[in-house]
Amino acid sequence: MAMILKSHAKINLTLHIGRKAKGGLHQIESVMHPIDLYDNLMFEKMEGDEVVVHSNNTSILNKDNLAYKAAMMLKKKHGIRSGVRITIEKNIPLGAGLGGGSSNAAMALIALNSLWKLRLDQKKLMHAAFELGSDVPFFIPGKPALVEGVGEKVKPITSYPKINAVIINPGFQVSTKWAYDAFDKHRKRMPKKKAMSARAYAKLVQKKDINGMADNLHNDFTEVVAKRYKIVREMTGLLNKYGALNSCLSGSGPTVYGLFSSIYTAREAYFKLKDIYPFVYLTKTV
Q: What is the pLDDT of residue 61?
């Protein structure tokens, strides 16, 4: 018996970074939204006691893979002696600010909870997810959410619009650790910008106010990431030039996205951009 799940990427519609908490993680306030860009994950029971990972992307075939870590954690905690083969068809760029690895980990928890009949409720799955990484809990409910604390406080938003979007990734990775270190180093020197709070932004999502959502996109990482990688400003500038309501960096980058008022304007921008950068994707929020 095999279980196949879509492992969606996310974008940060707003991201405010606070101080470091105990344990070294930063406090954040963010509204995250899943998008219709996803990896395909297949989980198959197998004889023996091994966890085996296969993928079309060989760079994730190691014990740092978060889906592998999720399986090993559940095996150890619950005394599971069954084996599993995890096949990951990777479509989400790595180290891109789109949460691909975290999403894979969350889907592994959900799938193995079912395959191994662990009967863990969502609260327990969220707790297990946080042990794997601060972004992982967000992906358990599978809905846009207000995310606070150090990522462990996830409040799903129950009503939300479907928004057309274009994603651009320039083909390199940005270290999240570097981004946080750079932000901490330059925090006092960065220009003070008034940005809507994440809680207020979540209300815009709930009201399905697409123009308000676009007008108030925000990411605290933008200044430090764009200073080091000039291409970030270039990409957001082109998205705006080609009809986006607004554009923004996702996570710690380097991926940027633009929100569009219709599939027609989004498609037009996609065709203008698709041959300029290594990864351009026409998508929508889900």
A: 87
